[in-house]
Amino acid sequence: MKISTHIHQQLRLKNGLITLILLGLIGGMAWLSSQHTLEVDITGNAGNTLALQSQKVLSALPDPVAITAFIPKGQPVRLQIAQLVDRYSRIKPDLTLSFVDPAANPDKAHELNIDAAGAVVIDYQGRSEKLNFIDEAALSNALLHLTNANERWVSFLTGHGERLSDGQANFDFSEFSKEMDRRKIKAQSINLANIQAIPENSALLVIAA
To answer: What are phi and psi of 121, to 5 degrees?
Structure first.
């Protein structure tokens, strides 16, 4: 199958750094999720360092990051969150953390749809992510998502016997697509016989013959 020069030009990625980080973290963040929880990670031998994937995410954030933890006063998890975020702020000093007691600020908690159990809100460049569970993998993935001002997609080429992004055969990519979806990376299938150009929102084109 041949792809025209015009299509090749369309495949040039405008956000090269973000795409490289995305590719590395699809696997890396999955590994972190399976290896660490907040409690284990901050008390283990590796508790003073961040994974290389997390450090790469921070390097792609030129502007300040504000993290607000809506956690009731007196909860031990406050200290755990502070210890986790401290590892990020050592690398990125303009990443800050503040605590808010949901019971003392019910209007703000209601506005953000935060219940009594609490949540963590990350703000960056006017965009925000809310986490109901936080560990290194969850926080780094939320920061990664905030680096993208526009929603980006991974496009899977179809129509010539390629493996499917949502197919169930053992050679298809359904599990890979589920993992991307869990990481808030969208997947779409495209057939060049039915469209004239690669969608502009494509951050990556997968051709899996």
So the answer is: -115, 130
What single-letter amino acid sits at 31?
Answer: W
Q: What global pTM score does this model have?
A: 0.56
Q: What is d(CA 53, CA 24) in angstroms, rounded to the nearest whole number?
A: 7
**Of the listed ranges 3-12, 39-48, 76-85, 126-135, the one predicted with least confidence:** 39-48
Nearest to 87 by CA among 131, 126, 125, 134: 134
Q: Give the total number of structural domains in the chain.
A: 2
Q: 115, 131, 146 — which closes off a domain?
A: 146
The stretch 164-174 carries a mean pLDDT of 53
| Cβ atoms of residues 24 and 56 within 8 Å | yes
| Domain match, 18 and 86 both | no
Q: Enter the tokens of residue 20.
A: 């490289």
pLDDT at 15 over 60: no
